[in-house]
TrEMBL record:
It holds the Pfam family Glycolytic. Belongs to the class I fructose-bisphosphate aldolase family. This is Fructose-bisphosphate aldolase. It comes from Fasciola gigantica. Keywords: Glycolysis, Lyase, Schiff base.
């Protein structure tokens, strides 16, 4: 995780030195049999490593975008979680790890699921009162 975070940080530095806004995209794969709570913990760890590396490399956070994964249980996990449960888990994970200086995040995912997820994230952010996360998934 640490080495991947450093690679992302070096990429961000090179982008910023060349006048490009880096889109930081740490990848947490949904492979495996892990539950939603484990996915949250792993994603938090990955994001913590990434933001530590970005700080160590003196990346200007206000000049970056984050493209996080949707926090979901492993594809082989027996329990299936709702889109809303995944959205709440994602928002909580981002609240715990993404600095307020980051101006926005973008999510990738399949069409209709992404739209449903975006709506759930918006409701979760409103309830949680985290205005800096309102740039999510626009």
């Amino acid at each position: 995780m640490k080495e991947n975070a450093n690679v992302l940080a070096r990429y961000a530095v090179i982008c910023q030195q060349n006048g490009i806004v880096p889109i930081v995209e740490p990848e947490v794969l949904p492979d495996g049999n892990h539950d939603l709570y484990t996915a949250m913990r792993v994603t938090e760890d990955v994001l913590a490593f990434v933001y530590k590396a970005l700080a160590d490399h003196h990346v200007y956070l206000e000049g970056t975008l984050l493209k996080p994964n949707m926090v979901t249980a492993g594809q082989s996990h027996s329990q299936k979680y709702s889109v809303e449960q995944n959205a709440v888990a994602t928002v909580q994970t981002l609240q715990r790890t993404v600095p307020c200086a980051v101006p926005g995040e973008r999510c990738s995912g399949p069409g209709e699921i992404r739209r449903q997820f975006t709506n759930c994230v918006g409701r979760s952010i409103t309830v949680c009162g985290q205005p800096h996360l309102l740039n999510l998934y626009k």
